[in-house]
Amino acid sequence: MFRRPVAAAAVATLSLGAGLGFAVPGATADPAVAVPLTCTVGASDVPTTATITLTDTPDPVATGADLDATIESALALSLPVTVEDVSLTMPIPAGVTVAAAADVTFEGGNAVSSTPTINGGAIEVDFDYGAGVAAASLQLPKIKVAATAGAPGTVTWKVPSAVEATVTGVGTVPCEPDDPDQALATTTVIANTSDVYVVHGIGDDLAAVPAQNPVDVYAKAKGPGNWGLVLEDFAFGEISPKLELTPGDYNVLICTAVPDPADSIAACQDNGGSAVNGNSGTDATVPGPGKSITLVAALSPERPTVLGFENDLTCVDPGREARLTGIHAADAGTATVSVNGSAVDDIDFGQGLTADLAPGTYDIDVSDGAALDLSLTDVALAKNTLTNAFVVGTADGEGGYGAIVQQFDVATCEQPPPSSTTTTTQTPPTTARATPVAARPVYTG
Question: What is the pLDDT of residue 277?
């Protein structure tokens, strides 16, 4: 049985890079926001409006990664006045860090000079228009902020807490937002990890008591160095609890189980065990962050190896809220997957097939036309679930072939409001190939 998860030693780090930036293709601006302001001119309060668009990239962003925000502003000044200077105070939202004034830059506009200052929890910017420009010709530069994402959660970018203009012949005109808590945009910060599950699919009898082939599973960042213990006494048919790993390239070493395995080893023999998937292990990539993948220890025609698949946790459409993924992890040839007697598609070892179905009970058959002839009857596929069925086993053994089942919750996709006239049609099931993640055997030793 599963004993304990252990953090993998020397984990790899995913770098999101510096400055994905406003100009990167695919960056999507949040909608322009109309910000009501009240300005004080002499003894009078004058209402006006600023239009502000904030673009945040990437969104979602991982903890500790670079986060760029670009702020485009326009002031509605219809008076025939000359503006000499404009200043804005932008709150730095909780959950991000702006280290220095040098992390605030400007683009465009018709100001003579632009100066940023970090003052406590706010960015203060000053746009100097020299001798002044007509209000109708005023163009504020884009404010580009290079920040660092903090803890997981939702970051709320709020409107400027103060806007001030210097107008020729009038003097300073201070303005404040009518609602200082009004949001311009939000950014989702996720943990810089992905969820990883491990399935033990090396064996030939899922009903065996005690469970077959207990192993100790080790992992390390790809490259030189020792392996760190991840799972111990892990038997055929078991699924590990969720492991949270930093995205990157890893190497997975599977050793025959031993009592009290060491936390760090240079080879399975250090524990007095032997390597199940070769002394050099199997390379595997953990994508992300924020992904969910399952690594399957499987019997291949050559020798045991590790397969990787991304769990499709995207939303499901109404009427097809049960997602089924069949994965070929058995020592067998190309197999045909059939649902309720109808062939869906063929898959080879290491491939998967996903279908979105109506919730209910199904008969699922997997056959390679030779030794593999697996029939799963009355398989209950519940609403709002992803069911992974890993076909495992070998013709050489008492138990032959079987299926290990893993389930996740998935949400139903939000639907647009119905129109006044609707037409109801029956939507057929959708199928697609399951997405593999890089898992490459390294056959040495």
Answer: 94
Residue of 93, 75, 94, 95 whose CA lies nearest to 85: 75
d(CA 281, CA 249): 13
CA distances for 326 relative to 151, 311, 443, angstroms: 36, 12, 27
Helices (H) and strands (E) in the chain, counts: 0, 34
Give the Cα separation of 238 and 284 in Å (integer).
20
SS3 124: strand
pLDDT of residue 77: 67
Average pLDDT by stretches of 10, the chain with 445 residues: 33 21 37 94 90 95 95 81 95 96 97 96 97 93 97 96 94 95 96 96 93 96 96 97 95 97 97 94 94 94 90 96 96 95 94 95 95 94 97 86 97 76 46 58 34
Residues 98, 121: Cα–Cα separation, whole Å: 9
Q: What is the pLDDT of residue 386?
A: 97
Who's near 365: CB < 8 A, 6+ residues apart?
A: 336, 337, 338, 341, 373, 374, 375, 376
Class of domain 33-190: mainly beta
Domain map (residue ranges) of the chain:
33-190, 194-441
36-56 as b/e: b if 16+ CB within 10 A: ebebebeeeeeebebebbbbb
Q: What are the angstrom distances between the C-alpha of 273 and each of 216, 234, 262, 265?
A: 9, 14, 11, 11
pLDDT (0 to 100) of residue 59:
94
pLDDT at position 106, please? 97
What's the length of the chain? 445
**Coil/strand/helix, residue 102:** helix
Reference 243, options 262, 255, 228; nearest CA is 228
C-alpha span between 230 and 221 (Å, rounded): 13
Asked if 277 contacts 316 with a C-beta cutoff of 8 angstroms, the reply is no
DSSP states along 251-269: EEEEEE--SS--SEESSGG
- Write down the pLDDT at residue 177: 97
CA distance 13 to 36: 44
Kindly report the pTM of this predicted structure. Answer: 0.74
DSSP 402-435: EEEEEEEE-PBPP-PPPPSS----PPPPEEEE--
CB 370: neighbour CB atoms within 10 A? 10
Measured CA distances, 184 to 50, 63, 72, 88, 160 (Å): 12, 21, 11, 15, 10
SS3 content of the chain, % helix, strand, coil (to 5): 0, 55, 45
Neighbours of 116 (CB within 10 A): 20
